[in-house]
Each structure stands twice: as C-alpha cells, then as structure tokens.
Amino acid sequence: MSRQARHDVLFGRQFTPYPLNQVRYSRSIDWVTLLIYLTMVGVGLLNVYAASYSADVPFERVFSADWSGLMAFNWFKQLVWIGVSVLLIMVLLVIDHKAYDTFAYVLYGGMIVLLLVTLVIARPIAGSRSWLELGPMRLQPAEFAKFTTALAASRFMAGINLRQQAFKQQLVLAGITLLPPLLIIASNETGQALVFGAFLLAYFREGMSPLILLVLAAAGLVLILSLLVPKLWLVGAFTVILALVLVLNPRVLRHHLPLAAGVYAVVLGMVFGVDFFYNNVLQPHQQKRIEVLLNPSADPLGVGWNVTQSKIAIGSGGLAGKGFLEGTQTRFDFVPEQSTDFIFCTVGEEWGWLGTMTVIGLFMALIFRVIFVAERQKSVFGRTYGYCVASIIFFHFCVNIGMTIGLAPVVGIPLPFFSYGGSSLWSFTILLFILLAIDAYRKQDLVR
Fold first, then answer.
1. For 350-378, what is each residue's pLDDT tens digit?
2. Residues 22 and 104 in one domain
3. What total of structural domains would you count in the chain?
C-alpha cells in the first residue's frame, strides 16, 4: 500500500462520504460513556493522591519543586498520564473508523513482535520481564496487547459465522487469542495473561457453543477441588458419577462409551496433574498466594500481609469513611502497592461503604453502557469489539476488587482508570475510545 493510500485509509478520504472535518462528533460521540470515563479518571486521580500523600510534605512545598521534583510524586505523574490520554483520545477520534478494521492484523502482528522483543531485552523487575524502559519511562506491552488482540479477533469474526464455521476456523480464533498470553506467561506475568480468558464472553455472544464455557467451568472446578480435597476422594467421586451415568443411561454405554472413557481419563489427568503444575510451573510466590487464598491465616505476616491489611483498611472505613487524606492504613503505608493494585482499599478506608458502592456503580454503569453501545453497532466487527471491551473491563473489575477483599488470588491486575500507572491508563483509554470512534460512525456502516 502506498503512502498516499495509507493516508487515505487513516484519515477518511477512502471511506467517508464527506471530509472528516465536517463530522459532528458533538452529536455522534457517546457522551454518556465519555462522562463516566472522565468521572472515573478524576476520582481515580484523587485516590492516587491519597494513597501517596505524606503529611510531612506540605502542599506549598510540592508546587515549589521543579519539574524533576514534581515527577517524584505518583499523583503528579498520574496527572501527566491523564494529559497524554487526552491527546490519545483526540488522535483516536480523528483517525477514520475503518482504519481500525483495515489495520487490525497489522497492529496485532506489531504487538506480537513487541512482546517478543520485550521477552528478549527487558531486564527482570520483580521477577518479570514485562517492562520496556524508554529513558525515564517504563511501558508494559502486555497492557496494550489486549486492545490489539480484541481488534484482530473482531476482524476475524467479522468474516465468519461462529455458529456454522468449521473447527479449523475456530482453532484460528483460538490461536489469535492464545498467542499473546503465552508470550506474556513466558515473561512471567501470569496475571495479565489471565485477562485474555475474558474474550470467551465476547465469543459466546457471537455464537460460540455454551458447551465450551461449561467444559472450561467444569475444568476450573476440578482444578480447585484438586487443591482442596484428597486425590483418592476425588477419584472415587468421579468414578461413582461415571458409573451412575452408565447405569441410568444405557445409551451412553452403547453409543458413547469411548467419549465417556476419554472424559474420565482427562479428569483423572487433571486431578493428578495439578500437583505437577503447582510444583513445577507456578513460581513460589504464586504458590503462596494460592495457599493464602485457600487458607487466609496461613501466612498473615508474609504473603498474606497485603490482603489482611487491605481488608482491615476497607473494614475500618465503616459507612461513610474516615475522610479524604484521613485513612491511617493509607497514610502509614500498611498496604504495599496501595496506589496500584490495591487502590480500592484506599477508597474503602477514606470513603467507606458509600464510596466503594459508588465506585462499583460507576463500573457497572460503564460496562452496561459499553454493552449498549456494542449492541447498536451495524457491523459484526464493531459489535464484537464492543463486547471484548466490556469483557476485559469486567474481568479487571472483578479480579482486582476480589483480591483486595480476599476473594481472589493476588495476581497484579490493576483497577481500570483508578490504579496508578501510565501503561494501564493509556491501554484502557485506547481500548474504550476505539469503540467510541467506531460507534460515532455507526450510521454509515453497512451490515456485514
């Protein structure tokens, strides 16, 4: 493709029936979603400030510092990241919406290359090779891989009917989805890799068999039971269940015995293979986190410290909280990583139950609004991408809040738009505003 052709695709001359500067975004952009986004980012900045606030540093001293001094404060860096996000939004809305479909595979391929480069050249940070250092700035490509994978998967699904397509094409879709998390796992960033499981919810909307979700849910249940229940008990229970199925339904014995035997063999392999996975694949700190999740009192002063202090902080907030900058757990740094992975406990301590329910309400409003936007798309590409956005935000929301209250293992997943960090904020901003850019042109799209 020539330089002029690429310019035409990106900036609308090839696809839009009129010059882009005549597009009235004030009418076409979804202002409800934009308002929710701005509210979440603003509230998130307040809580990042609270999480990094120190009474020993007077406010006037902060603003008397030079640029390098200001960049020592997390809240100021977050403010800078927000400013960059505003620029990203402007760029995303200027680019013609068809470019996201046209260049989906190119962006996906570029991100795969970037993940490979990161795996090779990144230096270990906290045991993970997942950060690229560009001077004073660090970027985490795994964060940006989510929106490129969503674009590529949506582009692929726009050309097929998932209900009717052959198993071969479903394998291609699985490959598109699984390649980035495999590279992320290789860099020892398991938490970010788990997020890609959320794509199954979008695929289910587009016709993926519910049997796949049931099988995966059953497999997850077997793995959890293998950690909680003695192996011989589980084997006995599954043997009894299989025997009852064969006795009560003779058709299975006559026509589906090989399938039943295969399922039984897979279940036994999972029961006895979980020990190998636990001891040889998981890192020691990941093993400890699972142990603490299953038994919260196992290591309260070690691996369990974060979750214990987080629950204390949230519980101490009561109904209305202790007040802005008045949280003792927050001010005295009882919870490590409080401005990133555990930002929700700052909300709970300083704003109380009312504050936490407000934050949860904002996330639910955003997720339902994104689903609403996805459903009104005229193209399969736009609808699928919208559901990918909703699924990714939903997964982050559930897992992050779950780990701060002890219902999920600590896997290092940020809370979208709230947690401190440029990579997280930028990736979710790009993810969301690509959808809004596509939605702004929905009346021009033809049904595909």
1. 999 999 999 999 999 999 999 999 999 98
2. yes
3. 2
